[in-house]
């Protein structure tokens, strides 16, 4: 189906372009949300008549998104989750959890604006891209930790999943003899 775009859509085109998209994408997403019109003569004339108002509206949305992006710039958000000693989360952190963390700080972001290809499954600092507008995107830092204290230590650059952080042992000082005694293993086999 050919449609006329009423706003810039990533990976599809600019405002005013006529593009060919799949019928389902047009019927279920672009047309109901007012992001496009069917490409016919009547709609082309309608678009040309409304072009100035559409450009003004798009500029307003972009400036609002840019203001939010300026407020989010350099911010880190803490998400506390249960995790094992190796840092593996018992659950995961999904886009919904990131939206909740942003909302707690007063930022209203939609789930479709969070680019998270796979859920976060380990503690640590993670970069997440937010698409606030087709032309405005920003990267925020998500600090996933077991506690607020641990999140603060992580933000200072401390690693919390190494043997040093978990057991209080310097990994470089560890030797194989610290873990097993080769002579003791041989004696047990002879007794058995």
TrEMBL record:
<keyword id="KW-0694">RNA-binding</keyword>
<dbReference type="GO" id="GO:0019843">
    <property type="term" value="F:rRNA binding"/>
</dbReference>
<dbReference type="InterPro" id="IPR009027">
    <property type="entry name" value="Ribosomal_bL9/RNase_H1_N"/>
</dbReference>
<dbReference type="InterPro" id="IPR020069">
    <property type="entry name" value="Ribosomal_bL9_C"/>
</dbReference>
<feature type="region of interest" description="Disordered">
    <location>
        <begin position="149"/>
        <end position="168"/>
    </location>
</feature>
<protein>
    <recommendedName>
        <fullName>Large ribosomal subunit protein bL9</fullName>
    </recommendedName>
</protein>
<dbReference type="InterPro" id="IPR020594">
    <property type="entry name" value="Ribosomal_bL9_bac/chp"/>
</dbReference>
<dbReference type="GO" id="GO:1990904">
    <property type="term" value="C:ribonucleoprotein complex"/>
</dbReference>
<dbReference type="GO" id="GO:0005840">
    <property type="term" value="C:ribosome"/>
</dbReference>
<feature type="domain" description="Ribosomal protein L9">
    <location>
        <begin position="13"/>
        <end position="40"/>
    </location>
</feature>
<keyword id="KW-0175">Coiled coil</keyword>
<comment type="function">
    <text>Binds to the 23S rRNA.</text>
</comment>
<dbReference type="InterPro" id="IPR036791">
    <property type="entry name" value="Ribosomal_bL9_C_sf"/>
</dbReference>
<keyword id="KW-0687">Ribonucleoprotein</keyword>
<dbReference type="Pfam" id="PF01281">
    <property type="entry name" value="Ribosomal_L9_N"/>
</dbReference>
<dbReference type="GO" id="GO:0003735">
    <property type="term" value="F:structural constituent of ribosome"/>
</dbReference>
<feature type="coiled-coil region">
    <location>
        <begin position="37"/>
        <end position="69"/>
    </location>
</feature>
<dbReference type="GO" id="GO:0006412">
    <property type="term" value="P:translation"/>
</dbReference>
<dbReference type="InterPro" id="IPR000244">
    <property type="entry name" value="Ribosomal_bL9"/>
</dbReference>
<keyword id="KW-0699">rRNA-binding</keyword>
<feature type="compositionally biased region" description="Acidic residues">
    <location>
        <begin position="179"/>
        <end position="192"/>
    </location>
</feature>
<comment type="similarity">
    <text>Belongs to the bacterial ribosomal protein bL9 family.</text>
</comment>
<feature type="region of interest" description="Disordered">
    <location>
        <begin position="173"/>
        <end position="192"/>
    </location>
</feature>
<dbReference type="InterPro" id="IPR036935">
    <property type="entry name" value="Ribosomal_bL9_N_sf"/>
</dbReference>
<keyword id="KW-0689">Ribosomal protein</keyword>
<dbReference type="Pfam" id="PF03948">
    <property type="entry name" value="Ribosomal_L9_C"/>
</dbReference>
<dbReference type="InterPro" id="IPR020070">
    <property type="entry name" value="Ribosomal_bL9_N"/>
</dbReference>
């Amino acid at each position: 189906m050919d449609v006329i775009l009423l706003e810039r859509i990533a990976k599809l085109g600019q405002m005013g372009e006529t593009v060919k998209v799949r019928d389902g994408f047009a019927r279920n997403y672009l047309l109901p949300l007012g992001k496009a019109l069917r490409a016919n003569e009547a709609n082309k004339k309608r678009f040309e008549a409304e072009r100035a108002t559409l450009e003004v509206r798009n500029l307003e949305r972009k400036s609002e998104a840019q203001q939010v992006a300026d407020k989010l710039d350099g911010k880190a958000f803490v998400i506390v989750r249960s995790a094992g000693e190796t840092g593996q989360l018992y659950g995961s952190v999904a886009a919904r959890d990131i939206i909740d963390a942003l909302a707690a700080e007063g930022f209203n972001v939609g789930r479709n604006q969070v680019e998270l290809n796979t859920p976060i499954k380990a503690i640590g600092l993670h970069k997440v891209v937010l698409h606030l507008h087709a032309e405005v995107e920003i990267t925020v830092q998500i600090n996933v930790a077991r506690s607020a204290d641990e999140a603060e230590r992580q933000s200072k650059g401390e690693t919390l999943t190494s043997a040093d952080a978990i057991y209080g042992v310097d990994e470089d000082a560890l030797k194989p003899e610290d873990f097993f005694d080769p002579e003791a293993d041989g004696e047990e086999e002879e007794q058995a």
